[in-house]
Amino acid sequence: MDRFYKNVEKLYDFTYASKYGPDWIYSIFILFITFIIVTYVNFLNTRDELAANWNEVRCQPQNMALAGFINAPKDGSTSSSEYAKQNFEGCLNDMSNKSSYEITNPMVASLNYLAEIWSSFSESLNNIREYLARFRDNFANFIEEIMGQIMNMMIEFQKVFVSLRDLLNKILGIMTSALMGTLGLYYTLVSAFKAIFSLIKWIALAAIALAITSMFSIIGIPIGIILIVFVGVLIYMMVMMARGFPPVLGGLRFPRIPSPRFPRVCFDKDTKLVMNNKSIKKISEIKLNDKLKGNNTVYGVFKMLAENEKNNMYKLNKVVVSGNHKVKYLGDWVNVKDCPKSVKLSKYDDKIIYNLLTFSKMINIENNDFLDYDDITPKNLDKLNNSSVINKGSLHDNFGLFRKFIGGFYGDTKIKLQDNIVKYIKNINVGDVLTDNVKVVGVVELDCSDVKIKMVNTVTLMCSDNILHDSLGKVKTIQSVRGTNLGKVNCNKVYHLITDKNYFYIDFLKIYDYDYLIDHYLE
C-alpha cells in the first residue's frame, strides 16, 4: 500500500513541464536569438532603403521601434530613443488624424456643402441687394432728373406768369390812368359846361333886368323886345344843355352806399345764458354750434369794442346790455333804453362786449326775449323776405335761411395792419388798426363750410358768397362776380370784421364789413 502511494507521488513529481520545461525555454531562447539575428541582418540590409523612404515607412509597426537606428538625426541633436519616441508619437498623431479624417470626412463634406449653399445664397442675396441698390439709385436719379426738368419748366412758367402778371398790372395801370384821365377830362368838361351854363344864366338875368328897365321908356320898348327874344334864346340854350348834359345841374352821381347801423348792440361778458341741457354759460364762453334753451343753435359769435357803448349801457332784470338793443316788452320790440324796467348804468369799464347769432333770431335771458345781433324787426323781415337771395315767402317759415344773408372769409386770409404787419384774419383782435387807419371794432366768427376761391379784380379771395366789395364805386357781392370758381376750401367756420370806417382792405380790394351784409338788402 505504501508502495502504491509512493508510485503515485512519483508520478506527480515528474510533470510535463518539469520534464520538458527547460527544453522549451532553451528552444524559445534559441528561436528568439535567431529572430534577433535574422531581423538585425535584415535590418542591416534594408536600413539604407528604409532611410531613403523613411517618410513612407516610418509608421510601419516593424519600423516604429527601430526608428532611432534607421533614421536618427545625424547631427546628434536627438538620441535614438528620443527620436523613436518622437516618431512613435508622430505616427500615433498621423494615424489619429487619418482615422479622425476618415470618420469626420462625411460630416465635414456635408458641412462644406451646406456652407457652399449658404455662401451661394448669401452671394445671391448680395446680388439682389446690389441690384435693388442700383435700381434705387437709378430710380432716384431718374426722379431727380424728371423733377429737375419739371422745376426748370416750372421756373420758366413762373417767369412767364410773373411777366404776364406784370403785363396785366401794367395794362391795368394804363387802363386806370386812361380812366382817370378820361374822368379828369370829364370833370373838366363838366366844369367848363357849368361855367358856360352859369355865364349864360347871368347874361340871361342881366338881359331880363335890362328888358324890364327898358319897358319904362318908349324908346326902350324895341330894345326890351329884342332883349326878351335874346333871353328866350338863352333859356332855350340852357334847357338844351341841361337835357343833353345833365351833370351841369348837379355833377356826377355815384351809387349810394348804405350807411351802417350805429350804435352796436351787445351784452356784458358775464351775461348768463341757459343752455339746452339746462347748464349755465356766460355769453363770453359760448362757442359756435352751442345750443341755447329751446334747442336754439348759435351760428355766430361777436366780440365788440365797448368804448362806443360806455355811456349807453343799461341793466334790465340783471342783464347788462346796450341801450339800443331790441327787447320784447308788452308784445312789441322796443329799445332797452326805452323800456320802463331798464336802468342806465352810470359807469361801465369793460373793454369788450359780446353778442350772438341764433337760429331763432332771438336770445332768451332772464325770461326776456332779445333780438340777436342782426336786430331784425318784423318790418326788416318783410323786406328780406322779398329779396332775390331766397324764395319769396319762405323766410317766415325758416329762419335758418338767414345764413344766406351772411358771409365771411377763410381763417388764413391775410390782412395787412397799419404798421405793415400781416395777420391772418382769424388772429385779428378788437382794437387792431388796419391799412388806411381803419380800426377794428368787432370780430365775427360764423358757422359756414361753403367757402369758395374766386379771383376778384386780380385779388384771390377765399370766402363765402355773400361778401360785399367795392367795384368802381358800386357795391357788389362775390356771388355776382362772373367767372369760374377756382376751387373750394374745407373748413367749418369763417371770419369777418366790423370797423369804424365800415370797410377794410384785402390787398388793394376794398371790402365792406359785416354790418353791410344784411343792410345791403334792406336798402
UniProtKB/TrEMBL annotation:
Tell me yes or no: is Transmembrane helix among this UniProt entry's keywords. Answer: yes
Transmembrane stretches, start-end? 24-44, 167-189, 195-212, 219-239
| Swiss-Prot/TrEMBL keywords | Membrane, Transmembrane, Transmembrane helix
Q: Which Gene3D superfamilies match?
A: Hedgehog/Intein (Hint) domain
Q: What is this protein called?
A: Uncharacterized protein
What organism is listed for this UniProt entry?
viral metagenome
Species lineage: unclassified sequences, metagenomes, organismal metagenomes
